[in-house]
Amino acid sequence: MTVTSGQQLDRALTDLGWPDLLTEIPDVAVPLVFRLLGETGAHAPLLNDVIAHATGTPLGATHPLPFAGGSWVVWERADRPGTTVDEELPLHPVQTGTAVGVAAGRHALAWWLLGSSRAMLSLARRHALDRRQFGRPVASFQAIRHRLAETLVAIEGAEATLTAADDEFGALLAKAAAGRAALIAARHCQQTLGGIGFTAEHDLQRHIRRVLILDGLLGSTRELTREAGTRIRTAGAAPRLVHL
């Protein structure tokens, strides 16, 4: 994961026209850029721009972001080490804030989580094919196959939910589904890699720390699932995500 990140990537994307793409074709720019952030393990404070665009405020500023447990953080545009389990992300606590542009932010984070999930699955799959036990690749063992298959199903299901999401409630469900897929990927891929997956030097650990933080931003999987259930119970009906 030796890729350009942070302030340097932020400037590079600005030079390449990220603000114009976000303004003119957000439906293309956001999935493309945030999925690639996850797949490559890079990071940049682009969530601020997505929220700014959704709220009609100038790009380039920062916005307080709700974090799991009722706390608030700000994603700085500098490279000052953060205070979370993923110190690479320049996230720092603030006292309070106002939740704005939440749906657009959840949509972007969901793509980021799915990119990270696919990166973890790729690492686990490669290891399962290369690692041999009892004279054959561990990928031939049924337990490994089941873990990787369950991970893939969770990722594909979350992406289908995200693709169909076209309103605020859809974004909530998509973020919850993407967070769940990422946590499943982290658990199963960790088990597939075995001891090497626990080492700090392996890329898997960096992806795991990343998804733990991204899942907590703008509502964790647990919080969003609970909120969705409360809404459905109150309304007495569940909205249809995809109209057949």
UniProtKB/TrEMBL annotation:
Alphabetical UniProt keywords: FAD, Flavoprotein, Oxidoreductase
Superkingdom in the source lineage: Bacteria
Acyl-CoA dehydrogenase/oxidase C-terminal domain location: 103-220
Record bears the keyword Metal-binding: no
Gene3D superfamilies: Butyryl-CoA Dehydrogenase, subunit A, domain 3
InterPro entries the record matches: AcylCo_DH-like_C, AcylCo_DH/oxidase_C
Name of this protein: Acyl-CoA dehydrogenase family protein
